[in-house]
């Protein structure tokens, strides 16, 4: 399938919606071209029929009355016509530029809206494997390039083509011999331009790729600036960016040099064509075969004849950039989300939270399984802990439960319904999640809390904040709930950020609550407040707790112990300790308590 199919559909749909504006722009463009084609003719009238007093041809007999009044009046009339052409051309040009530029900006708006919506639907595997800078370059830079191509290239190219053929017809009418001299130069010009444009294509592709790398590098460093400064690695990062910028500079210079060569080649060919035209045209005037005004018009057209070709040469570089950008945007639009909505999927409402994993296997890479034949059953309302070493698969289970990924084998059910039969958005709305790494937006505290429920009232926001033990510290902030937090919540402490994240999860009133050890990286006082909030809100709800630290493990109804992607043990805290297995060993190692089952050294 043509990988630009969706992009073409978007552009075609937008242009069909503004076809009236396009027709107006085309009319204005034709009018501008006509005024430019007529521009040299008043000079011919002045030279041949006013100054040299040749007899007016039948097509200009309507000017006879003016010419009988002497020289001043005809000069005034013809000069006024020159001014009128300029005014008319300027007015038409204004409406044409305004209309096409507006259409171009609207096209960027539509493209970015569709691209952003598409990016949000793409699976996490895509976002994990794609550099964010590359995505930003496509979203911002490439869409702008497409807009410029439409407003600054397509209609200008159409205008130049109209001018080219219009002048060709007029030149052929004036003198086919001189027109033939001009045409002799075109094949050589075409071959050279084709070769140069191929070089431009290669350079532009390399340049766009380097720009994506640079954007990714800057985004990565700025998002980790505290770490860079703490380790004193500013110079190292500057060196890495300088290396990539130097490669981009080389590609840019190469493109500029080739583009300049296009202009130079056209200028040289234009000079040769003009010189030949002047020589043979002057000879024909001396033989009485042409009027001086005809030669003046012909030379003016010859100089203008190569201008569209020269400008098309310049625009070809922009066209190449636009075609590269179009391919990059089209490739992204053609990526299909791995997680597809099942036909006739039902809305998830008021889930009880009965969860079944049946022989589930999954890996982020096909040849490396994270989960291997995992099966377990969590009854509605149970409090369940997932424990295990890093990389055992705890977070992967949560990702599968949220349908951020689909298992490669087996099935996952909630309330005896396969989760693939639920509408994804409704399923995720039923699940409240608090991650270990707090994520806040650079917006007000109220907006961050209501992110879990966009239509929440102020009272609901405050109630959720009180549940999360966040209301008291929020009221001490300068603007209370309207206080703007820094990007990623940088103006708040870790405990404050975590409690706002809890409020964001609580406001949804979820059927199922997932907590990724929200107290592991904060101070004891904040941790105590968060545990109190969780204890209050989880009553009667199925709660899945990813435990990195073995704290109050006897509160859980069931503990699932993962090792190398498999459930190796399950049961209550006491049952697992009595088994004297993997969980027991982990527990005593982490807590530092004496393992009563470990053999004591003899004296």
Question: Could you write a compact summary of the structure shown?
Answer:
The chain has 603 residues and is of the alpha/beta class. It has 21 helices and ten strands. The strands form two sheets. Strands 6-7-8-3-9-10 form a six-stranded mixed sheet, with helices on both faces. Strands 2-1-4-5 form a four-stranded antiparallel sheet, covered by helices on one side.
Describe what you observe in this structure.
It is a single chain. With 603 residues, the chain is of the alpha/beta class. The protein has helices spanning 5-17, 19-38, 41-51, 64-67, 72-121, 124-129, 132-174, 176-184, 186-223, 225-230, 234-286, 292-333, 394-401, 424-429, 445-450, 458-467, 471-475, 494-506, 524-537, 573-579, 582-591; strands at residues 355-362, 371-378, 383-388, 409-414, 417-418, 431-434, 512-516, 542-546, 558-563, 566-571. It has three domains: 5-333, ABC transporter type 1, transmembrane domain (ABC transporter transmembrane region fold, Up-down Bundle), CATH 1.20.1560; 348-430 and 513-591, 3-Layer(aba) Sandwich (Rossmann fold), CATH 3.40.50; 440-509, Rossmann fold. Strand 1 (355-362) and strand 2 form a beta hairpin. The chain is elongated, with a radius of gyration of 37 Å.
What tags apply to this protein structure?
Rossmann fold, 603 residues, ABC transporter transmembrane region fold, four-stranded antiparallel beta sheet, 9% strand, 3 domains, alpha/beta, elongated, six-stranded mixed beta sheet
